[in-house]
Amino acid sequence: MWVQILNVVGGVVFIIAMGILLHGATLIVCDRERAWHERRDELVSGGDKADGDDTGRESKEEDS
C-alpha cells in the first residue's frame, strides 16, 4: 500500500516538474522568436514603415 502511495506522489511530482520545465522552455523560445522578429523588422526598409515593395531597386536607380 505504501508503495502505491509513493508511486502516485512520485507521478504527481514528475508531472508538476515537467510542466514547470516546459513552461520555462516556452518562455525561452518566445523570447528568441520576438527578438528575431524585431531584428527582421529592422532589416526591412524602415521597419514598421515598410510598404511591402522592397525589391532593392531603389539603390540601383540612385547609382545610375
Compile the SSE list and pairings.
Layout: H1 2-43, H2 57-63
Strand proportion, as a percent range, falls in under 5%
Order of helices and strands: HH
Straight-line N-to-C gap: 86 Å
- Helix count equals 2
Helical fraction equals over 70%
**Low-confidence regions:** none
Average pLDDT rating? 81
| Major pleated sheet | none
Number of strands: 0
Shape: rod-shaped
Structural class: mainly alpha
Kindly list the characteristics that best describe this protein.
64 residues; mainly alpha
Describe this entry's structure for a reader.
With 64 residues, the chain is mainly α. The protein has a domain at 12-40. It is built from two helices and no strands. The longest helix has 42 residues, at 2-43. The mean pLDDT is 81.
Brief sketch in words of this structure:
Helices cover 77% and strands 0% of the residues.
